[in-house]
Design brief:
Distance between the termini: 39 Å
CATH architecture of the largest domain: 3-Layer(aba) Sandwich
Subunit structure: Homodimer.
Bound molecules: zinc ion
Radius of gyration: 23 Å
Helix content: 25-40%
Number of domains: 2
Family: Belongs to the peptidase M20 family.
Largest sheet: 9 strands, mixed
CATH superfamily of the largest domain: Zn peptidases
Order of helices and strands: HEEEHEHHEHEEEHEEEEHEEHEHEH
Number of helices: 10
Pfam families: M20_dimer (PF07687), Peptidase_M20 (PF01546)
CATH class of the largest domain: Alpha Beta
Number of strands: 16
Shape: globular
Protein name: Amidase, hydantoinase/carbamoylase family
GO molecular function: hydrolase activity, acting on carbon-nitrogen (but not peptide) bonds, in linear amidines; metal ion binding
Length: about 400
């Protein structure tokens, strides 16, 4: 279910996403679930409880992907939730709580540069300004939601009431190699790193590559390059800090023109929010210093995407018990990648179960998990649910 021939790219609210929904909806129905799409367009399958006024356990992850993605990031968590409900349905068992399997419409944010449009709606932290974001074709989030069948004006009503929820569980490929190193199929996240992002533009003077002498130049790309090097060097010095420049756009962008503008992205993560914010401040200062040394001007726009979060101790303990009961050693470690669980922890107890992935590779078509590890994850979630029901 991809927008691109020969590689997996499934952005939010696209026909490829609709095909994925159609497929997953069929599987959810077959597993005894009642389906609905909420106002932003999240896909929700409900396996009702054996009594009325029961609370709800949400098992979810995202169905959108990055560009040229692997086939497990996000979708694996939805499929494992589905598999667990399928088994309950086959055994004709209902639990004292409802299970909702949720496929979030937008976590990676590839299409709109957004973040967590889906889970923020459920968590009640959706910023209506996000509806104004536009994709590269000029289509707004609001229009995309509408065209997909959602109702952008009613989004605030989708926020769940905390007292109706039992918790949120997300199964996700680890996207790191700790489990591989420890030779374990699954593990538990104790904290999830916060993220800050900035967009920087260095502005200089465009000129002729042949006639503008070196001493006349204020080359925007040379300033940006110096900054990229500085980011890497700084992040190497600060324990626990990861910093990435993943986008760089040069204008006018011709081989015989001295670059007049260079725009780049900065992504900063650290398990400690204070360390992340002071790193951000330092790099802001550094960018300014580079610009002024080179006679460039600098534009700096920053945003905190997500604060660091601690996963719910009670759910972590229950997961650890389930892992032990399934015959594996329970381990906990921090997540460097951000997940919908960070957002959901704003409204309910949340936890993440990681599944080992080959070489820690993710956001890459080489993403790989084994059948045995997925089976282990399903068993752990099953035990977790049974214990919760008990
Ligand atoms: Zn993911």
């Amino acid at each position: 279910m991809s927008e691109e021939e020969g590689r997996l790219t499934r952005r939010s609210f696209t026909p490829a996403m609709r095909s994925a929904y159609d497929l997953v909806t069929g599987w959810m129905r077959a597993a005894g679930m009642v389906i609905h799409e909420d106002c932003i367009g999240n896909l929700v399958g409900t396996y009702t409880a054996n009594r009325s006024a029961a609370r709800t356990l949400i098992i979810g992850s995202h169905l959108d992907t990055v560009r040229d993605a692997g086939i497990f990031d996000g979708i694996l968590g939805v499929m494992i939730g589905l598999a667990v409900v399928e088994r309950l349905h086959q055994a004709k068992r209902r639990l004292p709580f409802a299970i909702e399997v949720v496929g979030f419409i937008d976590q990676e944010g590839l299409r709109f540069g957004s973040s967590f449009l889906g889970s923020r709606v459920l968590a009640g932290s959706f910023d209506p300004a996000a509806l104004l974001l536009r994709d590269d074709q000029g289509v707004s989030v609001a229009d995309a939601v509408r065209e997909f069948g959602g109702h952008p004006d009613l989004i605030v009503q989708e926020a769940r009431r905390a007292q109706t929820l039992l918790g949120y569980l997300e199964v996700h490929i680890e996207q790191g190699s700790q489990l591989e190193r420890m030779n374990l199929p699954v593990g538990v996240a104790n904290t999830i790193a916060g993220i800050s992002r900035a967009t920087l533009t260095f502005m200089g003077v465009t000129g002729h590559a042949g006639t503008m002498t070196m001493d006349q130049r204020h080359d925007a790309l040379c300033g940006a390059s110096e900054f990229v090097g500085a980011v890497e060097a700084y992040a190497r010095e600060i324990p626990g800090l990861v910093a990435t420049v993943g986008e760089l756009c040069v204008a006018p962008g011709a081989r015989n023109v001295v670059p007049g503008t260079a725009t780049l992205s900065l992504d900063l993560r650290h398990q400690d929010d204070q360390a992340r914010l002071s790193a951000l401040a330092h790099l802001h200062w550094r960018a300014g210093a580079i610009a002024s040394e080179r006679g460039l001007s600098l534009r700096w726009d920053e945003a905190q995407v997500q604060a660091g979060t601690t996963m719910a101790p009670e759910l972590r303990n229950r997961l650890a018990t389930a892992i032990g009961a399934a015959g594996h050693t329970p381990v906990e470690f921090p997540s460097g990648a951000c997940h919908d669980a960070s957002v959901m922890s704003g409204i309910t107890d949340s936890a993440v179960l990681f599944v080992r992935c080959k070489g820690g590779i993710s956001h890459n078509p080489a993403e790989s998990v084994t059948l045995e590890d997925v089976a282990a994850a399903i068993e752990v979630v099953e035990r977790f649910i049974n214990e919760l029901a008990g």
